[in-house]
Amino acid sequence: MPNEHLHELFLDELKDILGAERQLLKGLKKMSKATENSQLKKAFDKHHNQTEGQIERLKEVFGSLGITARGKTCKAMEGLLKEADDIIENFEGDPALDAALISAAQKVEHYEIASYGCLTLLQS
């Protein structure tokens, strides 16, 4: 049945974004530590707190479906966070570090937006 396949896709995407959000927690801590700009540090810390909230909401979604909240390794987030790690390593001490970190964070945010948008479409 086509609807069955869509439901399986929805569950797979749900596991993917849960894994991505968990991976992101670690990445945001690294980005926060890498910047010396207090405003950018606050922004990364705020996003970290919001991510914790997203994880809790995702756990509620899993619970409402009657399944255990289990994520999977998100290859896309893994790549985006690897890019952020490379930026931290390659731009250490460079005045362009903060701009590069903002760029990396924007890419992460766009991935999150796309993932939640897809979940919304699959859920309806």
> In CATH terms, what is the architecture?
Up-down Bundle
Number of helices: 4
Query: CATH homologous superfamily, by name?
Result: Ferritin, core subunit, four-helix bundle
> What does the radius of gyration come to?
16 Å
> Can you write the helix and strand succession as a string?
HHHH
| Arithmetic mean of pLDDT | 95
CA(first)-CA(last) distance: 16 Å
The helicity comes to: over 70%
What class do helices, strands and sheet pairing give?
mainly alpha
Name of the top-level CATH class? Mainly Alpha
Unreliable spans: none
Number of domains: 1
Principal-axes geometry comes out as: elongated
The main β sheet shows up as: none
Kindly describe this structure:
This protein has 124 residues and is mainly alpha-helical. The chain has one domain (2-123): Ferritin, CATH 1.20.1260. Helices cover 83% and strands 0% of the residues. It is built from 4 helices and no strands. The chain has helices spanning 2-34, 38-64, 75-90, 97-123. Helix 1 (2-34) runs antiparallel to helix 4. The longest helix has 33 residues, at 2-34. The model has no long low-confidence stretch (mean pLDDT 95).
Write the layout of secondary structure elements.
Elements (H helix, E strand, L loop, with lengths): L1 H33 L3 H27 L10 H16 L6 H27 L1
